[in-house]
Amino acid sequence: MKPTQVVLIVIVLCLCLYFGMTSRESYSLDNYKKFEDYDLIGEPKEGVECFEKTNPEKCMSICDSEIGCIGFKHSEKSDMCCLSGELLPVKKHIPGEQTTTYVKIPNGYTFEQKGDRLGGDIKIIEEVGLDACAKECDSLDECVGITFHGAYCIPKKSEGLMPKYIETTSKQFFSKT
Questions:
Q1: How far is CA 3 from CA 6, 10, 16, in A?
Q2: In CATH, what is the architecture of 109-176?
Q3: Which one of 16, 80, 119, 170 is at 20 to 30 Å from 69 when CA atoms are compared?
Q4: Which tops the pLDDT comparison, 12 or 120?
Q5: Which 8-state DSSP code applies to residue 150?
Q6: Which CATH number fits domain 32-104: 3.40.50.11540, 3.50.4.10, 3.40.50.150, 3.40.1650.10?
Q7: What pLDDT digit, counting tens, does each position of 37-90 carry?
């Protein structure tokens, strides 16, 4: 191989690496629970904002910046994502549509199953994001989890908290780990 060919190959590789790294935004979906072939967000309506020609990572970035966002759905088929502050009362199974729902999980919390756990309310906080809701719970000694629903936060204590989940609600309970 001639030295000019080696130089040309190195230049091409450098350009490929440069453009490959700078043209791609880097996000991690680690703090989101993924439901493949399920729509937990619903159709575009008041409180559901949709974006065309976007990927799940970009949707996550937008959701993280919106105060009331609990998650989003992304359709590979239509290349669209829709954000929402609440979940559908029932899981809508849509095989073949290539739709995946992502539900945001605050750091230090788990998503055991879809739905809410009744009782144990400490207080109700309005116009707060999911992460701020979790921080409020972290500041309360008796808090064992939170219910979140469209910018409404309800820190919960174990006393009076029902063990069973109510799945037919748009509210979501997150357990503190």
A1: 5, 11, 20
A2: 3-Layer(bba) Sandwich (3.50)
A3: 119
A4: 120
A5: T
A6: 3.50.4.10
A7: 777 887 666 667 899 999 999 999 999 998 889 999 998 888 899 999 888 887
